[in-house]
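#struct-help
A.M.: can someone run this one for me? Single chain, 690 residues.
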Amino acid sequence: MRRRTPFTAFDPAAVSPWNVQIDGLGFGGDYNPEQWPAEVRDEDVRLMREAGVNVLSVAIFAWATIEPREGELEWGWLDDTMDRLHEAGIQVALATATASPPPWLTRRHPEILPRLADGTVLYQGARQAYAVTHPLYREYALRMTTRMAERYGDHPALALWHVDNEIGCHVPRDYSESATAAFRVWLVARYGTIERLNEAWGTAFWSQRYATFEDVLPPLVAPMFANPTQQLDFDRFSSDALLDYYRDLRDTLREITPHVPTTTNLMTTSATKGMDYFSWADDLDVVANDHYTIASDGERHVELALSADLARGVAGGDPWILMEHSTSAVNWQPRNRAKLPGEMLRNSLQHVARGADSVMFFQWRQSRAGAEKYHSAMLPHAGTGTDVWRGTVELGTTLQRLGEVRGSRVVSRAAVVVDYPAWWAAELDSHPTQDLRYMEEVRAWYSALWHQGVTVDTVPPYADLDGYDLVVVPTLYLVDDDGAANVARAAERGATVAVTFFSGIVDEHDHVRLGGYPGAFRDLLGVRTEEFFPLQVDERVGVTGKAVGGDATADLWTEKTLVRDGTEVVAAYDDGALAGHPAVTRREVGAGAAWYVGTRLDPAGLASLVGRLVEESGVAPDVAAPAGVELVRRRTADGATTWLFALNHTDDGTTLDGLTGTELITGTAVEGSLALPPGAVRVVRAAASH
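D.P.: on it. Structure tokens below:
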């Protein structure tokens, strides 16, 4: 990867908070005035004021409008937009305009286009048709970034630099010639010598030993399974290459505007695995995230909560920006269903409950042309006489009433360990089963905790775990020695730690830890697995034990596990090839306990087990809520004030007892109980004792 020398004079303390000119929470979305004539832009500003908009992302895909022909720059429309928004009191997250190169650039320089593993070139005509590793594309992107910074760096509307857009969204892995060259440079930096690479990759197998780094290729389409460590390292390289691209553009901005914060919009969802966002965190002045619910998901509000907690986890617990979500339907799912009444407001406030200090959408005005014309917006095709517009205005008013929560944090005593390299490695080919999906396991455990009312932090395996009484480690297939020791220390300190199947199996090079599974966690858990027994499609076995509610079933995975003295078998298989063998075990460790779950339990069995873990660890919520009602607290840094968000995801009204304070949305006093109508959200400010 070819990078400029980083801007070493940068002083983080000199960076202004992105929302310093915003009163309360941010509210807005992507704004694309280049798609509309002047009279529509006039109406935009008037309606933005009516809705309470105070922040917009601008110029994300504007490169070809700013520079329609190479070297010919047309700034007038953007100058006018920045001035109008400033006059209206609206702050701007101004993009570098590099999210899609203009057609003239890709026509003249097709070598900058990315490629798939089979050699297919991804041409212009959509977006993100560029290879981030190509020196020529990097040169053009840096030039455009410099122009933006020089022209608007001192503009009073500028609050934040929005670097590129959803980096890696469409091309998380590029196999072009420039990527191949950059991969080799990355490998030299990682291993130093070709001998160390050969050892790490296990190239004695299948006559893969390399004589020089120049012989190494990305994992292209091959006759059989590609080397797994080669695949894993290419995943690491690709995430680093995308981050390197962000850093290069960011450093260019910092040289010219060191006082302006920078970010890019991440995509922390249970479906986005291409980038190790935890490794990106230190390079973002504020974490920004895009999230879209899946209409076919009956528990999409639970997936939303997980994604929001992932964003907060990347932010290290700090407040973050919801940079994009949708007012209603999107355009890219197989069946793009509109959101139900009240769903948009609940979605928005779920993100706020879990740490977002700004709620933004794609986009302000619904496009009349292009691939996203059926993607909903704050102002829909049908105009202001619509439920979507009325919901936009209602949300703006609600966020104004909740402005005081800005800057507060979510505090949790439970953590779920999430690791992107483990995700990549767990889903490599030539494994005991190809049906294991890492995030399905993470979500299953997260969902069980959500239904218990437990607020969860998502953390990488190397995070400080001292503040957690419950630590869940789902399918951490790959873990280095330090990460494994970190998890063990949490149990020794007093936490309840639950490790699930296919964890601790390989080291950071994807080499099996010998001596029996689960490798890195064998001593912590007091178990040793001799052999995996993955189940066939639709095959299930019975599991019996008090910890799983008496009788449960399991699918996907079983294993032949033996226990050491001091390890208790709390559930066992009662049929199948492993009848009588342990399925779930528990071992006291130091001041805590370590549980091993060697199979995938059905939802009822998992719920019973999670209930046992919650009880043992003492992380149960302090306010009881019926099924489908979500409770999350934010609090000030000194703990003097808390805000309890209560979100009713059901069609039934309910009452929450044991609450005292002020409900901010309705402005009413709460004295002992809170009425929560069907589908409603309420936010109660209270003293810290509540």
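A.M.: thanks! The longest strand covers residues 654-663.
D.P.: also worth noting: Residues 655 and 675 are 5 Å apart (CA to CA).
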